[in-house]
């Protein structure tokens, strides 16, 4: 902190006015015996206010005498706190905020006016009415730029309004304190107010642009899923109609969860062709034809086509699991945000048949299936799943339903729950990693 010194020219003496003398006695009565020294700041502030906003040495010594403390104790306080002015500051002491908010809003222009009209910092003008100093933040950043003159704030200043303010103070005319443009506290400037009915608060142009982007992406995905679903429900073309050949490398857009099993079966049928030499250019078209030649079956029939017992021998491949997860995600994005887990599961699969209670009153230890812990075992029990053979008999739609209900689509296949359950039902326990 910069060294603060007493003014070279000091008055001969200082004495409180009778009114202030009575006020001092009231302040001292607030403190217990022996603790009156705690009133030193209040008394110094009152002395400064009485002496044209500056604190001379005789006033500091007077306060020390009244509190029965050494002069040095009072001098330490007066020279430490910058709110005490140790030299004359004129009738109107202008404290100009120069920190970042005020600086960005025009404080430099106000500073030039102070230099031109008053002079250098802490220099009292020729008429004795003004002095100024640049200070740190005064806590009115919302209404920058601003100044404090004696005990009052003057905010939302412009060079024109600041010049008028100084003119009025010099002439002794009444001045307007606070905001000079009429706003109250930190409300928006006139003509720039926004209300809760302002569309810009919700359309993403002013606030939450990231949320707008996410909402648009989700809406686009939902619209695409609905369009694909509508296309899937169109009647099949006549047997002799020409079939357009799809682009070999373009991925098939998800058509809903009911279409995912059919695509997986088609991928499996096409896998030998995909491994054929590149000289066979018609291979992708053949795979697509094989997929399109499947009869348009009802959703339940499509699910049965890929049951582990008829078509898929063993768990799905990683590629097939990923394709199924993509289809599930496309369906879920079209549901309301507050949809329950059961509603989400119903939208993508078929709930497995449960039991009212374990057979024979004794449930299997489902935790023997790697990937099922205590919590998931409890959730499966709440669905009526108590035995290994129930898990072993799950169809593809049922696997998709349970995976979505438990909030981890694809995990049942990655951890081979169905295959593990089959082994635990009648064969040796499956090997663990």
Summarize this structure briefly:
Helices cover 44% and strands 5% of the residues.
Give a written overview of the molecule.
Among the domains are: 18-80, NADH-quinone oxidoreductase subunit E (Arc Repressor Mutant, subunit A, Orthogonal Bundle); 92-179, Glutaredoxin, CATH 3.40.30.10; 256-268 and 299-433, no CATH class. It is mainly alpha-helical and 433 residues long. The relative contact order is 0.05. The chain has 18 helices and 5 strands. The longest helix has 24 residues, at 209-232. It starts with 17 loop residues before the first helix and ends in a 7-residue tail after the last helix. A 5-stranded mixed beta sheet has the order 2-1-3-4-5, with helices on one face.
Helical/strand content category: mainly alpha
Radius of gyration: 42 Å
Query: What portion of residues is helical?
Result: 40-55%
Within the largest sheet, what's the order of strands?
2-1-3-4-5
Q: List the uncertain runs.
A: 252-258, 270-313
Q: Quick one: overall form? A: elongated
Oligomeric state, counting identical vs distinct chains: single chain
Mean pLDDT: 80
Estimate what percentage of residues fall within beta strands: under 5%
Largest sheet features: 5 strands, mixed
Order of helices and strands: HHHHEHHEEEHEHHHHHHHHHHH
Distance between the termini: 68 Å
Number of strands: 5
Number of helices: 18
Indicate the topology.
Layout: H1 18-28, H2 40-50, H3 57-67, H4 71-80, E1 92-97, H5 100-104, H6 107-117, E2 130-135, E3 147-149, E4 152-155, H7 159-171, E5 178-179, H8 209-232, H9 260-274, H10 283-292, H11 299-305, H12 318-332, H13 341-348, H14 374-382, H15 388-392, H16 396-405, H17 411-414, H18 417-426
Parallel strand pairs: 1-2, 4-5
Antiparallel strand pairs: 1-3, 3-4
Helix pairs in contact: 2-3, 3-4, 9-10, 9-12, 13-16
